[in-house]
Amino acid sequence: MEDDRGTILIERGSRPMRLTRTGDIVLDHAKRVLDLSDAAKADVMRIGRGQTGLLTVAFVGSALYPVLPWVLWDFRQQSPKVDVSLTETLAPDTAGGLQERKMDVGIVRPALLTLDEFEQRPLVAEKMVVAVPEGHPVRHETTLALASVHGAPLILFPIHPKPSLTEVILNACDAVGAEPDIVQNVLHLQTALILDPAGCSRTGRYIRQTLLPSFEELPSTNCNKGSKQSPLGGTARQCRPHL
């Protein structure tokens, strides 16, 4: 470096040899480079172990209430230095994002049967419930049979694009010979619960009900407080969120 820069870094005529002022500056820079190199190696190791970096998570809206909050809380307790980026998507978009490596993790409902190259794990098992408004004839029933929704006006999520939660619900209904009357499609769970108490026919009778997974931690609002969840007996269907 002395020959390259034409600068003396070490005073060789003295005993012991010592660094010149320029040499002290170069040594200080060299120490910083070594420290940065060690830090870079440590960061690479932490990233490799999933302890730092960025995690991109796609999730379906219905996973927001029962699953996402406690999953995120638990993850952040274990990996506080990992930044999490959240994107709400439909299940097919989640599949595409995973395949294109735009997403690291997807929370979907139901399981994506087409993604054989990815590992999928169930997060939580849920029973199906019917949400009914005040004045509904089955409001005080403790448990309902799934067949009871046959011919009943229902608020459901759209069946397309597939796979969808509604597809799972309708398959379960079909298995017991029930064919509900879908009178309203909604994109979001909260919308369904807001419309549910307001669902009345032209004669003024409450007729609407909503078939959905059980959400014990669903926040109560002035809009949905009139909606009651009635469990469906024997309907622990595969509607549970998958990771």
Write up what this structure looks like.
This protein is rod-shaped. The chain has 243 residues and is α/β, with parallel strands linked by helices. The two termini are 55 Å apart. The strands form three sheets. A five-stranded mixed beta sheet has the order 8-7-9-6-10, covered by helices on one side. The protein has a three-stranded parallel beta sheet with strand order 4-3-5, with helices on one face. Strands 1-2 form a two-stranded antiparallel ribbon. Among the domains are: 47 residues; 104 residues, Periplasmic binding protein-like II (D-Maltodextrin-Binding Protein, domain 2), CATH 3.40.190.10. About 12% of the residues have low confidence. It contains six helices and ten strands. InterPro entries: LysR_subst-bd. It comes from Roseobacter insulae. GO terms for molecular function: DNA binding; DNA-binding transcription factor activity.
Topology:
Blueprint: H1 2-5, E1 10-11, E2 18-19, H2 21-48, E3 53-59, H3 68-78, E4 82-88, H4 91-99, E5 105-107, E6 128-132, E7 153-156, H5 165-175, E8 181-185, H6 189-198, E9 209-213, E10 228-231
CATH superfamily grouping of the domain at 128-231 = Periplasmic binding protein-like II
How many DSSP H or I helices? Answer: 6
Task: Output mean pLDDT.
Answer: 71
CATH overall fold name of the domain at 128-231: D-Maltodextrin-Binding Protein, domain 2
Q: How far apart are the first and last residues' alpha carbons, in Å?
A: 55 Å
Task: Write down the CATH class of the domain at 128-231.
Answer: Alpha Beta
